[in-house]
């Protein structure tokens, strides 16, 4: 990368770190073209595909495109170049013009800045820099990689599902339960398969990793004390014989917080199970939820829950729990923490790595820069208006590359909506807009013909 003309303080080229402070690696989703397709046959220089990709970005960055973040001079910057496995980081820019010049001359494939603010963001090693730590934004990262059944979804399906998740996280947790002011929250599309929520409330600036972990635990429903939410009480069963039993006191569903969320999770769980045809499939679904969420609920327990919900009593408990909006079952063994944990799982948020938990708790993490392009898709990393999220379509609204025609060759059929058009391509040669050509080549779904 050309670094000679930019007026930034210092930089170092290092391998992508395996620590949580390094940007996450992404898996290639295309089996159609091998990795070697992207390399020159004689090893003498970049492949046509890599040259094409970099040329697309060079043209894009020939004009100022990047949106420097709040207090950008106090942030560390990091970049991956095209065709390289080494990251340039420990960089600091003093002026916006220096940022624009760097992008124009160095043409990075991926661009990041730190969630943290430093007295001197160019210091290295990291331990020395951290001595000048001044605080960090609170950032939540939701990515399709960590959605249940993500591997069976198409790319557009992943984008739609993760958008629903981020809407719930923002509305139900960040703005409602946690009470962060909307003016201090910023929603970004990552350019790939997810979203980032940045909270810049002064109240969170100096929170350490342990404090941020508590926020993550709340959002993911980890370590909820059901005896606090739904306290147990003693009720008489047979006054004549003085017998009694312990039952839970279920608060009203409008109580708020996790009480209301568990009610909503109960409804979602039951409706999900009612859509399945038989007992075996219902048990399998509970086992899958238990596995995805790490609940450790075994097959026998899942069978007991399903039997009590659907196969005992004159009117099955599942219908009664929906109709009467109550937690009502027949077995003394089922209405316990395991059933409540399953209800909680249906309302908890799949934060990437669980919200990507490491992203939220890591106070020196690097995050993608708005206005930059994502090297694996060609889509723009961009801020999304909260009020427009329901109408936001990344495959239309985040398309930043031009539509001039490019000839590509596909080994397999391809079908997807992009750029406001529906594309259905046969295997073989095709002429497509540059933005689609970049996407296909970057995902190893095509080569330049």
Please outline the helices and strands.
Layout: E1 12-15, H1 48-60, E2 77-80, E3 86-91, H2 96-106, E4 110-114, E5 116-118, H3 126-130, E6 133-136, E7 138-143, H4 155-177, E8 185-189, E9 194-199, H5 209-220, H6 226-229, E10 232-238, E11 243-248, H7 257-274, H8 279-293, H9 299-310, H10 317-323, H11 337-347, H12 357-361, E12 366-368, E13 382-384, H13 394-397, E14 405-410, E15 414-418, E16 421-425, E17 428-433, H14 434-442, E18 447-448
Antiparallel strand pairs: 1-3, 2-3, 2-4, 4-12, 5-6, 7-9, 8-9, 8-13, 10-11, 14-17, 14-18, 15-16
Helix pairs in contact: 1-14, 7-10, 7-11, 8-9
Walk me through what this model shows.
The protein is an alpha+beta fold. The protein folds into 2 domains: about 10-35 and about 45-220 and about 355-395, DNA primase, PRIM domain; about 230-345, no CATH class. The protein is about 35% helix and about 20% strand. It has 14 helices and 18 strands. The chain has helices spanning about 50-60, 95-105, 125-130, 155-175, 210-220, 225-230, 255-275, 280-295, 300-310, 315-325, 335-345, 355-360, 395, 435-440; strands at about 10-15, 75-80, 85-90, 110-115, 115-120, 135, 140-145, 185-190, 195-200, 230-240, 245-250, 365-370, 380-385, 405-410, 415-420, 420-425, 430-435, 445-449. The strands form 6 sheets. The protein has a 5-stranded antiparallel sheet, with no helix packed on it. A hairpin with a 4-residue loop joins strand 8 and strand 9. Helix 7 (about 255-275) packs across helix 10, helix 7 packs across helix 11 and helix 8 (about 280-295) crosses helix 9 (about 300-310). The chain is globular. The chain starts with 11 loop residues before the first strand and ends with a strand. The relative contact order is 0.15. Residues about 1-5, about 10-45 and about 350-355 have low confidence and may be disordered.
